[in-house]
Structures are given as structure tokens and as C-alpha cells.
Amino acid sequence: MSDFGGMEDLLQDFLIEAGDLLSGVDNKLVDLERTPNDTSLLNEIFRGFHTIKGGAGFLNATELVTLCHLTENLFDKLRNAELAITPDAMDVILAATGAVRDMFNDLERGQQPAAADPHLIQQLKLAIAGNLPAGGAKAAAPKPAPAAAPAPKAETALVPVAPVVVSHPIGEDGIDWHALYAAVTGVEPTTVAPVAAPKVVVAAAEPEKQLDDHVAEEIIKAAIGRRASDKPGYSGPTGRREVERTRDNSIRVDTSRLDQVLNLSGEIGLTKNRLNALRSDILNGRSDSETLHALDVAVSQLDLLVSDLQNAVMKTRMQPIGRLFQKYPRIARDLARSLGKDVELMLTGEETEIDKTMIEDLSDPIIHLIRNAVDHGVEPTQDRLAAGKTEKSVVRLEARQEGDHIVIIVADDGRGMNAERLRAKALEKGLITDEEANTMDERQSYNLIFLPGFSTATAVSDVSGRGVGMDVVKTNIQKLNGTIDIRSTQGKGTTFIISLPLTLAILPVLVVRLGEQPFAVPLSMVREILPIEAKHVQEVGGRATMVVRGEVLPIYTLSGLLGWPQEYLPEYGVLMQTAERNYVLAIDTFAGREDAVIKSLDAFRPKGVAGVTTLANGQIVLILDMKELLGTNADAGGTTREALLRDRMPAAA
């Protein structure tokens, strides 16, 4: 149950506005550390915290107000030049902003925040008094929301604290009530023989009484969201509010964009009325050239208006990527400080707009890439100086729009990547064979870092070394129908280039055919379409290949990938390009390009199918997930030269 009865809407408004303010404060603090004499920055930070404190006070979030007030007092002394900005003072301030963010997480679950760490409060008071000892605080990057927050003291009466007898430890719904009760209360219940229905008996000083099933269940469920995480290792169900808020589905839209949608809707309504009138005229026998011309004009106008409306609606989904970027300078600063490095994160293209549904899914991949750049890419200070570089390293995070794609770049000026070392490490871990290593070029060697379990770290730390992270990056980017590429120069740095479709709602596709059956493949993967001719087809290792501008590419038949019989000989090859490989997809023929409105198959999704769309002629077509098809059916999709050209050999000769 929420602690903010009647103020839910106000709470949500506060969390959105205060969250943006706090992210802005974090970024300004990183800037302030580089320019400690910038009084305008200090004043902006002071105002930000003052605004957060005011909103928290209105919501009666006492502990949040207390923390903000102390931090605000420290800012006040700094901006009045009563105290100097030191690295230790900055650590305390950043630790305070991290604690404020944790309190926001409590508010998101509908709970009043618990008191801040007493050590942090003490450090803030010492900093205000000018008595902060050197190294007295360590700043930490904002922590993710915990699974559940500790229960406020006033609500502990909701949880039965006496030992209980759980007569049916595993309920019919699969819930382990024995484990849940222990996790919630810290008291191990006694298990007796199962009975027909789950019962919870409270053993107290008064005569034993049995609780109603529903009441007992609700008591434990009410406590799960507050107390389950107190039990180490417990990973059971969480509170309902937390589940509902795992993903923010709200969006802020400029009213001018909504006005445009409204105006276009009105014009479409007028055009519809005109078409209805023309339809009535035609049904009544009018088919003169003037009527047909008017019909043609009305249909063309409707086509234009629908296209404009589609674009306008898509723009309502677009958000500046700066809202995603704004949390990264703090993360990069804290990690660099913990590693003893001097790193500046430079942001470019923050105004670039991207589909709102992508922003949350991009967060973790970009964090991994930034951490990778700071930890692995950037050399230690002494190594940079020995190489003739500046002590400070620059990591660049850039976004820009290129055609119907968004390009995101994470680049560092560090040591670069060594292709030979990567191949040797992959061999050592058994991730590739000697034959594969000998045939790899530099680009393929760089892509080894995306293999699960691959890591070049010599020791495992809390930052890296476990071989997870880069494979997650690649997987998440692929889920967004995007690609990731690596460019690196030894001694100069490494650049990761992410290319994403402008929106996930509309996907340009190439419609290909097997016999009379059409399929759609993402146009972003298509480089060109080539006729399959005998003189261009070679056989390498028992597999058919094509030489395209000096590049030997394997041929996969679409029928083989789908497990269909090959009724016709493939006439065309679609040259496909992905981050991992280039290949030729053999098809019967193709029907052209379409802008597909994707409909997902949530209830049932066959392997290798990304979704469905409807063509202009009304036919329903499957959109193929080529990466998944190649991952599962690559062997079946391969073919021999003889099989591919069996009826063409005489003609070719």
C-alpha cells in the first residue's frame, strides 16, 4: 500500500522533474570539478538541490529533506567562498547525490525514504564545518534500485513475528510459503505434514488460532515488497508497485507536435468525406472524366496526408538522446577516480532524437562501452605520459542521424586493440580453433570481444574480468535491429560505432519470394541484389560461394534456412551485411521495397521470425530475423555449387 494516498499524480510529477534535475546536478558537479571557480555552475547546482528539497517537503519526505538541506548548506558555503572545492569535498557531495537517487527509488515504490547513512550525514556536517579529513569519503556511482526497501518502523506490525506453523510449505500456485515467511520475518517456521489447503497458524501466548487462508496470504504478500530483500540471497517475488514500475512507459510530448497530429487528423476527416461523396456519385452511375479525376486527386491527397500523419505520430515517440546521455559523465568520473585515471567524457549530439522505446534498452550497452573505454581503453597516467600523450584522456560519446538510422559512437584515445593478442586469448580460452584464428582479419579479430566468456583482463575485479558485458552489448543492440562495429588503431584508441533504425515501429524491408510465398528481410542488412550466374559461383570446402569485388562470400539458400524444399532454382542473390559476417542469400525472386509497420508475435513467435507486417496488397508477410536463422540453421542453409546450379550447368557451358 502506498504511503502517498491521494498524492500519486503529484509524486509522479515530482519524480520526473526531480530526476531530471538530479541528473543535471550530477553533470554540473563533474564540470565543477574541472572548473572549481565557476560560480554560475555553483549557483545552478544550489538552485537544483533547493528545488528538489522543496518538492520533497511537499510530499512529507522528511529524510530526503534532511539530506538535501545539509547538502544545500554545503553548496551555500562553497558559492560564498567560505569553503574551497577539494576532491574529498566533491566525493562527499557526489555520495550525497547518490543517496538522494536511492531515496527516489524508495519513492517510486510508494514508500517514504529511510534515513541516509549516518556516516554520510557525519561527513556532510564535517564538510560544512570545514573539518573534513582527507580521504574521508568515497563517491560511488548511483546504485540501481534495490529489489525492495526495508520496512518503515511504523509498519512492522503488519508482519507476524511469532513462530508459525506452515502446514503446506508449497502452495498450489507454486509459492514457497516456508521460504517467504522466513525471508519476511527472519523467523524459521516449523513445517508439518501437508494438508489439503495452505494454512498458517500463529502460535502465541493466547490459545492457538488459525488465520483465514486469504488473510495469511495477504499478510505475507504485503510484507514481501518491504522485507524480502533483507534476507541475503533471497530472490523471490517483489512488491506489485515495483513490478509495475520496472519500465517507464510515459512520454513527454511537445504540444506543437500534438497540434500537428490534430490538424492532420482533421484534414484526413475532410478528405474522407470527399471520398465518400465521390463513391456515392460513382455508385449512382457517374463515371465521367471529371469525376474520375476528382477521385484520383482525393486519393493522392489522402496518401499524402496519411504519410504526413504517420511522420507526425512517429515524432511524438522521439526524445532527445541527451536525456539518456546526461547520467554518463558522473559514471565515467566515478570509475576513473576509483582507477586513479584522469578521464573526461565529452558529449556530442545530445539534441539528436531517438525512439523513446529504445532509450531504456540502450542504457546498459552504453554504460558497458563507457566502462570498457575507461577501464581497458584508457592507459594508466604513467603509460600515457611515456607514450607522449596528455595526462587527461578524452572519451567521446556522440550521436547523430544518418538517413533513416541513428549512429552512436563511443571512442577513446587510449591504447587501441591488438588483433593478434585477441586471437591468442580466444585460442587460450578455447573460443575459436587454430584454423579460425589463421583465417581471421583484423575486423573479425576485434569482434572476438563479443564472444560470451571472452576477456583480456588478467584479474577479476568489480569492474571487469568476468567475460560478461560486451556480449550483452551486442545482444541488446541486435534486439533493437541494430549493428555494432569496431575500429581501432594501436596506440591511438578504439571506436565503437552503433547503428540503429530511427524507430522500431516502422522498418524498411526488402520483400523476397520463395515460389509464390513472400518474406520480408530488413533493408538495413541489404547491400545489393545480384543475379546468380554459374561463372560467379565457386566451391570452397564443399560449400557454394560467390566472389563479389574480390571478396569470397558464402551462399545460403533461404529455403534451406527455413527448412523448406527448394522447388525452384534461385535466380537472385541478396548480398547481406551484418557486424559478424557478409554472405549471399539465394532467393527465387524479389518484389521490391516496403515500409513495414511491425506487429510483434508476443504469444507465439517461431524461431527466425521477428514479426509480421501487411503489404500494400493486403497480404500478411513474415519479417525474418536473419541473425537468428543463421545462428540456428546455418548448416542447413548452406549448399553445394552443383545443387545450386544443377539445371544451369549445360546452359552455362
From TrEMBL:
<keyword id="KW-0808">Transferase</keyword>
<comment type="function">
    <text>Involved in the transmission of sensory signals from the chemoreceptors to the flagellar motors. CheA is autophosphorylated; it can transfer its phosphate group to either CheB or CheY.</text>
</comment>
<dbReference type="InterPro" id="IPR051315">
    <property type="entry name" value="Bact_Chemotaxis_CheA"/>
</dbReference>
<dbReference type="GO" id="GO:0000155">
    <property type="term" value="F:phosphorelay sensor kinase activity"/>
</dbReference>
<dbReference type="InterPro" id="IPR036890">
    <property type="entry name" value="HATPase_C_sf"/>
</dbReference>
<keyword id="KW-0597">Phosphoprotein</keyword>
<dbReference type="InterPro" id="IPR004358">
    <property type="entry name" value="Sig_transdc_His_kin-like_C"/>
</dbReference>
<feature type="domain" description="HPt">
    <location>
        <begin position="3"/>
        <end position="107"/>
    </location>
</feature>
<dbReference type="InterPro" id="IPR036641">
    <property type="entry name" value="HPT_dom_sf"/>
</dbReference>
<dbReference type="InterPro" id="IPR036061">
    <property type="entry name" value="CheW-like_dom_sf"/>
</dbReference>
<dbReference type="GO" id="GO:0005737">
    <property type="term" value="C:cytoplasm"/>
</dbReference>
<dbReference type="InterPro" id="IPR036097">
    <property type="entry name" value="HisK_dim/P_sf"/>
</dbReference>
<feature type="domain" description="Histidine kinase">
    <location>
        <begin position="263"/>
        <end position="504"/>
    </location>
</feature>
<dbReference type="InterPro" id="IPR005467">
    <property type="entry name" value="His_kinase_dom"/>
</dbReference>
<keyword id="KW-0902">Two-component regulatory system</keyword>
<dbReference type="Pfam" id="PF01627">
    <property type="entry name" value="Hpt"/>
</dbReference>
<dbReference type="Pfam" id="PF02895">
    <property type="entry name" value="H-kinase_dim"/>
</dbReference>
<dbReference type="Pfam" id="PF01584">
    <property type="entry name" value="CheW"/>
</dbReference>
<dbReference type="InterPro" id="IPR004105">
    <property type="entry name" value="CheA-like_dim"/>
</dbReference>
<dbReference type="InterPro" id="IPR002545">
    <property type="entry name" value="CheW-lke_dom"/>
</dbReference>
<dbReference type="Pfam" id="PF02518">
    <property type="entry name" value="HATPase_c"/>
</dbReference>
<protein>
    <recommendedName>
        <fullName>Chemotaxis protein CheA</fullName>
        <ecNumber>2.7.13.3</ecNumber>
    </recommendedName>
</protein>
<dbReference type="InterPro" id="IPR008207">
    <property type="entry name" value="Sig_transdc_His_kin_Hpt_dom"/>
</dbReference>
<feature type="domain" description="CheW-like">
    <location>
        <begin position="506"/>
        <end position="635"/>
    </location>
</feature>
<feature type="compositionally biased region" description="Basic and acidic residues">
    <location>
        <begin position="239"/>
        <end position="249"/>
    </location>
</feature>
<feature type="modified residue" description="Phosphohistidine">
    <location>
        <position position="50"/>
    </location>
</feature>
<dbReference type="GO" id="GO:0006935">
    <property type="term" value="P:chemotaxis"/>
</dbReference>
<dbReference type="InterPro" id="IPR037006">
    <property type="entry name" value="CheA-like_homodim_sf"/>
</dbReference>
<feature type="region of interest" description="Disordered">
    <location>
        <begin position="228"/>
        <end position="249"/>
    </location>
</feature>
<dbReference type="InterPro" id="IPR003594">
    <property type="entry name" value="HATPase_dom"/>
</dbReference>
<keyword id="KW-0418">Kinase</keyword>
